[in-house]
């Protein structure tokens, strides 16, 4: 569960370019909830996600994840619980390392100190099996350098490697925005499957009307740092694409 209580973030406070990015937001995302955030450019969506991740710290308010107050914890100290995928496929992986080495690095992030990860055949096989579920044919190319893959391939792999067994939260900031329609579809469906399999509490930011309609069991709209719409459960299911479309215009 993610709880934001009266969270506020002002950038460049007291200067001419001051921005009230997140305006006194209170929001509880229940365990296993998949929250979709929509809103125009600059409405505070990424700032809200960054506050949850810890890459931005709030000016006021508190944030807790699974009943632990993380308000003053930096992003590294929260990272074992949080998986993140960004819009840019270049973020989140090491381009000069192979696919399998990237998975090793990701596994090391959560393993105990001194524990050797990823040197066994069992580890390699488990990674190949995971990759095969993408249906992109990458399971036989695990020696290939990450930097030589397409954006869609990288993004799908980033998603797979970022979620570990102890992960509780998945944060997706326009993960499919830079991808062709087929890759975008694979990434979104993979995310949806992972969220169900690992029972993750998830937040997706999107400008894609179809994704906002198809995914998640709750949708909020942000404007000028505030939540101006919040539709859950049955009411989200009953929303039509046309209704969501009117929010975008
Ligand atoms: N690190 C920062 N320093 C200064 N201003 C920032 C910073 N991060 C965000 N802002 C400002 O805060 C406001 C909200 O930005 P944010 O990135 O959260 O918007 P967004 O809803 O994610 O927009 P988009 O749809 O374009 O990604 C914007 O005016 C932005 O310029
Ligand atoms: Mg953004």
TrEMBL record:
Any one cellular-component term (Gene Ontology): plasma membrane
Keyword set, alphabetical order: ATP-binding, Cell membrane, Membrane, Nucleotide-binding, Transport
Domain ABC transporter: 2-249
Compartments where located: Cell membrane
Membrane topology: Peripheral membrane protein
GO molecular function, one term: ATP hydrolysis activity
Origin superkingdom: Bacteria
InterPro entries linked: AAA+_ATPase, ABC_transporter-like_ATP-bd, ABC_transporter-like_CS, ABC_transporter_ATP-bind, P-loop_NTPase
Tagged with keyword Transmembrane: no
PROSITE patterns listed in its UniProt record: ABC_TRANSPORTER_1 (PS00211), ABC_TRANSPORTER_2 (PS50893)
Signal as UniProt keyword: no
Protein name: ABC transporter ATP-binding protein
């Amino acid at each position: 569960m993610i709880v934001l209580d009266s969270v506020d973030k002002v950038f460049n406070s007291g200067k001419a370019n001051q921005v009230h990015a997140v305006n006194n937001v209170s929001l509880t995302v229940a365990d296993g909830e998949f929250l979709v955030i929509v809103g125009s450019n600059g409405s505070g969506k990424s700032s809200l996600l960054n506050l949850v991740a810890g890459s931005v710290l709030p000016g006021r308010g508190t944030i807790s994840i699974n009943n632990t107050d993380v308000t003053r914890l930096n992003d590294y100290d929260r990272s074992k619980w949080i998986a993140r995928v960004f819009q840019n496929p270049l973020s989140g992986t090491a381009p000069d390392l192979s696919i399998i080495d990237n998975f090793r690095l990701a596994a090391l992030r959560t393993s105990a100190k001194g524990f050797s990860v990823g040197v066994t055949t069992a580890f390699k096989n488990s990674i190949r099996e995971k990759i095969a579920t993408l249906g992109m044919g990458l399971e036989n190319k695990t020696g290939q350098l990450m930097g030589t893959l397409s954006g869609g391939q990288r993004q799908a792999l980033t998603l797979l490697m970022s979620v570990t067994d102890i992960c509780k939260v998945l944060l997706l900031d326009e993960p499919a925005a830079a991808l062709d329609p087929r890759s975008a579809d694979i990434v979104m469906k993979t995310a949806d499957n992972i969220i169900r399999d690992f029972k993750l509490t998830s937040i997706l930011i999107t400008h894609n009307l179809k994704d906002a309609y198809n995914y998640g069991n709750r949708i909020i709209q942000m404007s000028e740092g505030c939540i101006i719409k919040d539709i859950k459960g049955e009411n989200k299911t009953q929303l039509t694409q046309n209704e969501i479309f009117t929010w975008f215009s």
